């Protein structure tokens, strides 16, 4: 059952509003009380996202801590995203998709060749986008800070045998997820360029990002 909850926030009241093209990325700090909305503009896009405690960048989002605390492998309204140390970074406060993946990780040149074929090695991927943005941001972040990430809007079912499947998305045009910052949190997004599996319907599309203050 998908846990879909609408937001009371209005677009015209947002203090920040931008479009992130497919295959590009975005990095910005959220202050405590701010709310970030990620909008799947055309449907079935995968939005790979990492979070860091701004005061301690080494303390990044932890899929293990998050899953263990909530006793659920999927993220949806009410989920609290935790860091490696167990700190509460953000809380999902609205979600019109209903379920998001935190197991599938980010595509990379290496994983593309293993999953698909060697001739995909040159193709752009989320790990490259992450590393580019970290390098542009400054010396506080390096590739060592990359960790298993959230894949918003991505559908990765777990089989009875414990395997992961990259399946058709369950999102649609205009669906969104909203995250409330519980502490100063750096957000790192790769708007996935993946062309080899159905996580974004083989057609990467732009997303919209909005921020509201308290």
Which helices and strands occur, and which strands form pairs?
Blueprint lengths: L15 E5 L4 E6 L4 E6 L6 E7 L2 E5 L2 H8 L3 E2 L4 E3 L5 E8 L4 E2 L7 H7 L10 H12 L12 E3 L22 E7 L3 E7 L15 E6 L2
Antiparallel strand pairs: 1-13, 2-12, 3-11, 3-13, 4-5, 4-10, 4-12, 6-9, 7-8, 8-11
Features:
214 residues, alpha+beta, six-stranded antiparallel sheet, five-stranded antiparallel sheet, 3 helices, 13 strands, 13% helix, 31% strand, globular
Written overview of the protein:
- With 214 residues, the chain is an alpha+beta fold.
- It has one domain (14-161, 179-201, 203-207).
- The chain is built from three helices and 13 strands, in the order E-E-E-E-E-H-E-E-E-E-H-H-E-E-E-E.
- Strand 4 and strand 5 form a beta hairpin.
- The protein starts with 15 loop residues before the first strand and ends with a strand.
- The model has no long low-confidence stretch (mean pLDDT 87).
- Residues 19-182 form the DUF1989 domain.
- This is DUF1989 domain-containing protein.
